[in-house]
Amino acid sequence: MGEPLHVAFASGLSGTWQIDSVTAVVGEGLPEAARLAVVEGWNSEIPPAAVWVVRGVTSHDRYVTRREHDLLAARQPSLGRADASRAALIPLRKSPAWWSLPQDERRSIFEERSHHVGVALEYLPAVARRLHHSRELGEPFDFLTWFEYAPRDAERFDELLRRLRATEEWDYVQREVDIRLAR
Amino acid sequence: MGEPLHVAFASGLSGTWQIDSVTAVVGEGLPEAARLAVVEGWNSEIPPAAVWVVRGVTSHDRYVTRREHDLLAARQPSLGRADASRAALIPLRKSPAWWSLPQDERRSIFEERSHHVGVALEYLPAVARRLHHSRELGEPFDFLTWFEYAPRDAERFDELLRRLRATEEWDYVQREVDIRLAR
């Protein structure tokens, strides 16, 4: 785990990724746009004329144990693989009820009852993932998760999302947008 | 636990609090200044000609269990008590080794071995406390802790800090500044 990395996802007319769809899963969506730029660094320039910009920061693990950490580290691929030409950006906000739970109860819902890590492990190394924390930045979302995968794994990725969205943890999701991209 | 609150601590010529001392406990200190303004809110104005400004965000609990949460909630006083005319601002940065530990090992050092909550509980309700997270803001510190107490409790507050600084958790502190204030 290195230093926190600030990442801005700016939609508009420029950027490496073409936006294929923007779907409101829970609550308010986000406007459609043509392309998405992924801008890393605290003081990086956002492309002009952005339609919307969401920001987050990579950070240390919040729930995983040593054992889970090591399992994930052994299997999870890095971003930017040559064949991973599909991506998803999933901004998500959890409810005040979630944030008022103490750590042990959030952990219990996250893993012992929703098996968040256990389910995700089944989709590695097909799906690369990077989590960005937004709640402490005054953003409208709490998390921005970025996924990359090859076109042949698109159905498995949809299956992963269906399984996570059916968990008790997702009862606490009060806003979720699903943005699909290709390059 | 409400919404995250952004707080800027701006030193300079204005502000409610008079700065009595600025002490480098571990690593680099901060410059001396006359007064400190505590500025709450995401878009609040920082007083002009600030000597230094450190920023943080209140957030949800990261380590405490339900039982510890309830014990703390029952005993901890709010900020702004009429007789709490002394304060301390303690900006602190932990090492990369700390942040690379998984949640269960950080929790274990924090409470099972360093008794952070257990020790702090002994000093309630004398010492009021508010923790601000800075690491995800790209700040030089990871945490800013603000304490308020009455002059009669100043020695007990020093004892609290001595006990915490002697714990295994503090082995991971690589920068700490101790700023004392009065109003």
Q: What do these coordinates show?
A:
The structure is a homodimer of 183-residue chains. The first copy, chain A, is of the alpha+beta class and 183 residues long. Helix content of chain A is 23%, strand content 33%. Chain A has an eight-stranded antiparallel sheet. The model of chain A has no long low-confidence stretch (mean pLDDT 95). The interface between A and B is medium-sized, with 30 and 30 residues.
List keywords for this structure.
alpha+beta, 183 residues, homodimer, eight-stranded antiparallel sheet
**What is the percent of helical residues of chain A?**
10-25%
Radius of gyration of chain A: 16 Å
Distance between the termini of chain A: 28 Å
Structural class of chain A: alpha+beta
Biggest beta-sheet profile of chain A: 8 strands, antiparallel
Write down the oligomeric state. Answer: homodimer
Return the average pLDDT of chain A rounded to an integer.
Answer: 95
Uncertain regions of chain A: pLDDT < 50 for 5+ in a row?
Answer: none
Total E-strand runs of chain A: 8
Query: Treating each run of at least 4 consecutive H or I residues as one helix, how many helices of chain A?
Result: 5
